[in-house]
Request: fold
Amino acid sequence: MKETMQPTTASEAGYSSAYEEALRLALVAHREQRRKGSGLPYSIHPIHVSVILLRHGFSTEVAIAGLLHDLVEDQGFDPEEIDRRFGPEVSEIVDALTERKRDADGRRRPWPMRKREALEMLERTSKEAAAVKAADALHNVESFLEDLRQDGADIWRHFNQGPIEQLAYYRRITSISRRKLGSHPLVRELADAVSDLATAIKDTGHP
Reply:
């Protein structure tokens, strides 16, 4: 007897119109932006963050937040528009992960100040936002490793801070992520990547 395929439910569907909308938005919003160091299109980053979250079993909403997490910070996108189009769960995650890069007079705020505030916010935020930040950090760290393999220590001239400061920042993210998410495989993967970065930095001549 021929087996009849059961209809796919909404929760099981592979296609998501909301995810498609967020993907298109991220691609358009970041179209002029390039990754520091490699010079690759910046959209590689939010897409990979989203893929990491999906591969680790997080919801479509969390993956959409991964796609959009830099939209307000880097492109000045209206947070209320994110809320209207994608709902409060996505907009709250994006808001929790958005750094204020400029002061009231439009001057660029110092990197240490921004990162300190970002870490303080991460301590107070939801597990879902912590997962997006962990995925964001994982892709950034893996990108550092790839760039180091390609170009060596010269890559650090493209960034606001050198390798020691960067490493300390990602270690803090790992520590907070572990407190928020426990022994989740995403946290373990991030911890392994940060450990690899520490080794690579030492191998390129830094203490």
About this structure: The chain has a mean pLDDT of 90. The chain has one domain: 17-203.
